[in-house]
Amino acid sequence: MRKDTLYVSDLDGTLLDTTANISDNSRAMLAEAIHSGAMFTVATARTPATVHPI
Which of 1, 11, 31, 40 is 20 to 30 A from 21, comparing alpha carbons? Predict the structure, then answer.
């Protein structure tokens, strides 16, 4: 994977399920991408205080 890869995801209904959890599959895929040098961030309408616990 190229080191200049940035993944951006929305949270609610995209990365998070209806119980505000990340699936094991998504968590593993993100961990692998980050381990390979990719960067990851979220784009959300949530406030920072409501994102931090996730």
Answer: 1
The encoded tokens of residue 26 equal 């998504």
pLDDT(41) > 90: yes
The encoded tokens of residue 2 equal 């190229």
Task: Tell me if 43 sits within 8 A of 8, measured CB to CB.
Answer: yes
Q: How far apart are CA 32 and CA 41, in angstroms?
A: 15
At position 17, the amino acid (one-letter code) is D
Place of tokens 């968590």: 27
Q: The tokens of 41 are what?
A: 């961030």
Domain map (residue ranges) of the chain: 6-48
Integer CA distances (angstroms), 19 to 4, 7, 13, 34, 39, in order:
32, 23, 10, 24, 25
